[in-house]
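Board notes (copied after class):
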Amino acid sequence: MPDDALLEIVQRQTFRYFWEGAHPVSGLALDQRTSGKEADDKVSVGGAGFGVMALIVAVERRWVTRDAALERLGRMLKLLLHARCYHGAYPHFMNGRTGESIPFWRKDDAADLVETSFLMMGLLCAREYFARDTPEEAAARSHISILWDEVEWNWFTQGGREMLYWHWSPYNGWAMDHAIRGWNECLITYVLAASSPRFSVEPAVYHRGFASGPGFCNRKPWYDIELPLGMPFGGPLFFTHYSFCGLDPRGLMDRYADYWEQSVRHVRINRAHCVANPGKFAGYGESCWGLTASDDPWGYSAHAPDTDNGTITPTGALASLPYAPAEVVTVLRHFLERYGKRLWREFGFVNAFCESQNWYADRFLAIDQGPIIVMIENHRTGLL
């Protein structure tokens, strides 16, 4: 099968997670689905943003009609407009039936600014895409504008500190005290905060907040590949995916880095580590790589070269398609040919696998399935 036809099949099968597998009432993306089991009501707010972007791809590729997508988007927006929010920001998880917050941890029970930024990224894409002069599309744009305009990004500087903070709770205040500092998946959070029409932040919040700290600058070689930013070896691959689902890294530069080059090098380092395979894990090689956050045989972890335990996560390589096209297609074909139905199921590829432990996940996560669809599309057409 030609590469492009195969990529279309992968996108379309994965889209089933956000169409058939979405919350039955609101249509928002459920946090996770397990093969053969009924889902609960837990919606992932960031995953919902990726799901909105996947919906745009589905319309453009005619997997669903424009009218059906607008009906689904309308249900999503209806819940979001009435859901519990905190200074315009949403929690990490919410109930897809009622809109009530679902705590992530004991004190992480309310606003999550980073998850909100992934949601807003998806909604802003939808506001641009559904641009026709019809009552349904005008209503969708209006409702998205309300949600976007009301996120109080500057509130999350804790009263004027030169930094954004991840969490706030009406019950626990700033107790989490988690500053959003780079390099990581949060560039989009600062870009949206800077561009807010009502509650924007000053440049110093970016330069002295995100672009600071021991984990920002790198400029060291890993596997003979110099990395401009980030932790040793670059960290998990979702750093190269989440912000760039809707923010084009090609030609995106500031005084710190060229963000296209940053992402390309990060992916090359991750691949080089799996090829070198210092841990001698089964399956690793040029056709099997991709370390990022996912389930593993022992729980859940942000897998990276310096935290490698033998777990490969399909979204790690597949969502890296724009940065290493030939290498990623090789991985895709290998996953299907070697592992078959152990990896490829009703909603696309399962979350992760560890051949050394003969372990294959039986669930799918919204935050992994969404970037597969979106980043493949960004490679194919640049749509999002």
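Comment from the instructor: The mean pLDDT is 97. The CA atoms of residues 351 and 364 lie 5 Å apart.
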